[in-house]
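Dear colleague,

Thank you for sharing your sequence with our group. We've completed the structure prediction you requested, and as agreed, I am returning the results in plain text so they can be pasted directly into your records. Please verify that the sequence below matches your submission; if there's any discrepancy, let me know and we will rerun it promptly.
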Amino acid sequence: MKILLLGSDGQLGRCISDKFNTSHYELVYTNRSSLDITDKNKVLNFLKSLKPQIVINAAAYAAVDDAESNFSEANKINHLAVSNISKACLENNLLLIHISTDYVFDGITDTSYLEDDKTNPINVYGKTKLLGEEAVKNIGCKHIIIRTSWLFSEYGKNFLKVMLDLSSKRKELNIINDQFGCPTYAPDLAEAIKKILDFYPNKLTYGTYHFAGDQTCSWADFAEKIFEIANEKKFISNIPKIIPVGSDHYITSAKRPTNSILNSNLIKKQFNVDPSDWRDGIRKTILKF
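Please find the predicted structure tokens below.
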């Protein structure tokens, strides 16, 4: 079975590539230079020529703060390009697996978010990602939308890699302790996608699902666990002192949700996919460096 992977050089795209390398699927990789997903005709012609059965869209404009002053570009990638992809999938009767974000929610809740909870993004990134979700649903192609959060791995730029880098440069670190979420090990998300595809085509239940970490934490908690495990594995020799601070300590262009905890029960029930064990993910990431 042939799969087209969009965004293959991003963090998640590279993790998907690793997971599918030894599978029975034939994976075709594209990035921004090999396929302009903002060009509707190019997307349609590419899919007609390639004839995949499945499209995985891991491409995104994910620079959350930059998006605040660059709505046009963020909207082009996160919304309009997704519309192009969805229309091409509908025309060719293809399954689209589209990756979205916890930032479609406003964070004003005392519990974890379910798939059908009201969305209300508070920054441009979240707004454009929500517009992308709505395009997929309104166009009506066969689809699975997966919302995830706080992705990390050995690839790209992410919180874990930043913390490990700072451990050798700082004795103290001010880390936010009033924003809460579920860190997600990107290879676990790639594995979840692989397991979902085991149900395709006859037993696949289309719709929106959440996949994230199995335990909630603040950014300060996350940093503490990163340093604890890195020290345990003798990857770092210095553990910086973590000073918990409120989110108002850092002035950022984009607001972040206070609570972006995703409930992953539905994806487990439907596809027998366990949430991401992000503590184990930290260990696995460190061992790859």
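Summary note from our side: The longest strand covers residues 95-101.

Kind regards,
the structure core
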